[in-house]
Write a structure and sequence with these properties.
transmembrane, four-stranded antiparallel beta sheet, alpha+beta, Lipocalin, 8 helices, elongated, membrane, 321 residues, 29% strand
Length: 321
């Protein structure tokens, strides 16, 4: 029933665009802009998998489970920063870590868990700006961002955002999943920073897709929290000739004779749909899928059913209407 419901939602959106009819039934399914996440080492300001330097003190991450043995765990990194009345201390161990925020010497927040922590930074030219005392959200208040890595391969990153002005408050903790390259960046030139992360829905699907798409997602502060940035995700439609050329190239790739569509078809469709160009994605599918290869409807069913599990599903659906 869930799959049929997803088909109907996608069909309705597709008919509104007035473009595509697919054998038997049309699926308007959504996927994602900017393709898979890439992780350039030089651009990842928050990755703590190797030795990092915060205020001249190396922070080293490692290990697996929280400390459970006798005695005290070995400290592998310590750091602290001050901003006006605030002092923030970070202590990392092999398999756990903690940070605390003090205002005028009184603790106002603390967290200790099986993670390592660090001060988040953003690149400014050749330098890095510590996100402490910076107006991150654009609301005119000084703020602080603490990055968290849950240790272990592939997962997981969280960014804790606090207001540290006259009033202290925890604004939001942003779950970035396995996005090593997640970061704050000013994309629109307005006050405040956007947050760039990825949607890991397809990668996390049990028994899912080979070489799954991990589409890029942009979040923007709406006055309360960071949410899907529709105006920054939306892109102009691609040239029809370019879509046709991509489809023809995919049609010549290996895998079709065995009934296995190449991963590139999903990647390209994800790019188009997460930029608000669903009709072009469906056109690409029709042009790329060989007439003598079965399974197109099942392919769409798998995609739409999985997409419905995305935390951004409703936003992507709206983006394409």
């Amino acid at each position: 029933m869930e799959g049929k419901k997803a088909h109907q939602e996608m069909y309705d959106a597709g008919m509104r665009t007035g473009v595509i009819s697919i054998l038997g039934f049309v699926f308007v399914f959504l996927l994602i802009m900017t393709g898979r996440s890439e992780h350039p080492l030089g651009d990842n300001l928050f990755d703590q998998r190797g030795p990092l330097v915060r205020s001249g003190i190396p922070l080293v991450s490692g290990g697996a489970a929280p400390h459970t043995g006798g005695g005290s765990p070995a400290v592998v990194g310590q750091d602290e920063e001050r901003y006006q009345d605030y002092l923030v201390r970070i202590t990392n161990y092999e398999n756990e870590g903690s940070f605390e925020i003090l205002k005028n010497g009184r603790q106002v927040y603390s967290l200790h868990k099986a993670s390592n922590f660090g001060f988040a930074k953003v690149r400014e030219g050749k330098n890095y700006l510590l996100l402490m005392g910076t107006d991150v959200t654009g609301n005119g208040q000084p703020e602080l961002v603490i990055s968290e890595w849950s240790l272990g391969a592939h997962c997981c990153y969280t960014f804790h955002l606090f207001e540290i002005g006259d009033r202290f408050r925890h604004i939001q903790s942003i779950d970035a999943g396995s996005s090593e390259s997640a970061r704050f960046l000013n994309l629109d030139g307005l006050p405040g920073l956007e947050f760039i992360t990825d949607d890991w829905t397809f990668a996390y699907e049990p028994g899912g897709f080979a070489d799954p798409p991990v589409p890029r997602v942009i979040l923007k502060f709406d006055g309360t929290s960071y949410v899907f940035a529709r105006e920054l995700m939306k892109q102009d439609p691609p040239d029809e000739g370019l879509v046709h050329a991509i489809a023809k190239n995919i049609q010549t790739m290996d895998g079709w004779p065995m009934g296995s569509p190449p991963a590139e078809i999903m990647q390209e469709m994800v790019d188009l749909i997460y930029s608000g160009n669903m009709a072009h994605a469906l056109s690409l599918l029709d042009q790329a899928w060989p007439a003598d290869v079965s399974g197109k409807d099942d392919f769409l069913l798998d995609l739409t059913t999985t997409l419905k599990k995305s935390p951004f599903y409703r936003e992507i659906l709206s983006l394409n209407q």
